[in-house]
Amino acid sequence: MMNQDQTGTMRKIHIFDTTLRDGEQAPGATLTPEQKIVIAKQLAKLGVDVIEPGFPISSPGDFAAVQQIAREVAGVEICGFARAMKEDIDAAVRAIQDAERKRLHLFISSSSIHLDFQLRKSREQVIGIARQMVAYAKQFVDRIEFSPMDATRTGDEFLFEMIEAVIEEGATIINIPDTVGYALPEEYGAMFTRVMKNVRGGQQVQYSAHCHNDLGLAVANSLAAIQAGVSQVEVTVNGVGERAGNCSMEELVMALETRKAAIGAETSIRPEHIFDTSQLVSRAMSFPIAFNKPIVGRNAFQHEAGIHQDGLLKNRSTYEIMDPERLGIPRSMIILGKHSGRHAIKHRVSQFGVELNEEQMESFYAAFKSLADRQKVVHDHQLLELVGHTVNQVLEPYTLVSVQLITGNAGHRVASCTIRNEATGEEAVYVGTGNGPVEAVVAGIKQGLPFEAEFADLELYSLSAGEEASGEAIVTIRAYGKTYRGIAENRDILMAAAHAYMAACNQAAREWVKASKGGSVEPLEVEITIP
């Protein structure tokens, strides 16, 4: 293992982000030029060292996006991607010519299976092309990155020969990709060691790792490469990319951050922007994030087991090796279900400003366990209802009593929303319109609230299959300068969205009421299930 350098300081690992190039090559992940520009600016804010914004020769739109990013995104190196062909290189040079800092990234296949069946060229021909194109590119930029595609299935002899050739012609960064996600960590790290030791000129260049995740080893392989001396890793946000994707940026970065002392390396990534960047890419590509995805998945920092919940409430580090709030992730670590203990349940109830005496707690706990035995999770609206029955009061500020919706394939949608103000007991009907049904319902609900609740985001999930399938809606709103999330389930997905929005608004309203009385309360996730 290669830890700290000889001066005792941490080695810097440069983060090369290819979300906008290799990540966008995932089926269905295509981005508009406008989306690429927004994401590129967020990546710069995140602190990546290099952005590969696209493949300029592939389309006029991609060329325009790369060109605009090169002109507008400062403080980060912009890399133009090109096959080892003059027309590709010319397009990439034109696209990045206005960048503050720039490089070219050239690639050509190196494995026998690629040469025989894809390129249909001999090894001598491929070496000649690689030499000529690196020399051609060198006249435009000083920093040339070269990738022998499918390097892990190439074999040392030809791999060494190709790398030596491009170094002689001026390549400054050698990227050795595991193009098909085939390598094992010990194999991948050892390959870099052999290249650095045996290639002439191999000590004069920077090395980069580029791993795909076909066997789920992209992050492990990238870490092995770092331990072998690599100083750059190519990643994508959320691990998006061809087939099973690329090395996940957030997983690699947090592995380095969490095990910094053991690995002896660090990055310039600003962790507080990881979650927002992940959400931005997920929404732009319409790629949902798996619930159990490390770092940014919905369950990554949530705990249901009573033993875990008790430990967390006493000291977070008992069951969490990272602080989610440091990553910009909303704190919602306690999920209440049949495995939850009294300590966690009492803590959640107290967060709503309610203290139960011993007798009330016994009655409430029995009702909670009965409900928890019938369903997977006890959502906050149900918790509030149980508490309300226990203390004989209504705890939610507003109730969405009913929604009537007129929709169709033409014209505006119209929603009639009945809302009850629980403080006064008064019910009123509010009518909203919109181009879509969700927009119409939200417009109606907004009229019944005494504060502005901006509808920020909507996520929809199918929870089951068949005619009786239900859906889950997660709505994010902004109010009072903070963000709130409401979650609802319903067989009618529009009603799930409506109740999720109402849940988020109630969360904001509860905080406003408590603040107006001189107190404060941390934002909670409100989850509701409508029968």
Describe the structure in brief.
By secondary structure, this protein is α/β, with parallel strands linked by helices. It is 39% helix and 20% strand.
Keywords:
3 domains, disordered C terminus, 8-stranded parallel barrel, 531 residues, single chain, alpha/beta, Double Stranded RNA Binding Domain, elongated, TIM Barrel, 17 strands, 39% helix
Oligomer: single chain
The whole-angstrom Rg is 27 Å
How many helices does DSSP assign? 17
Overall 3D geometry? Answer: elongated
Number of strands: 17
CATH topology of the largest domain: TIM Barrel
Summarize the amount of helix as a percent range: 25-40%
Name given to the CATH architecture of the largest domain: Alpha-Beta Barrel
Number of domains: 3
| Unreliably modeled segments | 519-531
The order of strands across the largest sheet is: 2-3-4-5-6-7-8-9
Strand proportion: 15-25%
Q: Structural class from helices and strands?
A: alpha/beta
Q: Can you say what the CATH homologous superfamily of the largest domain is? A: Aldolase class I
CATH class of the largest domain: Alpha Beta
Largest sheet: 8 strands, parallel, barrel
Termini gap: 56 Å
The averaged pLDDT comes out at 87
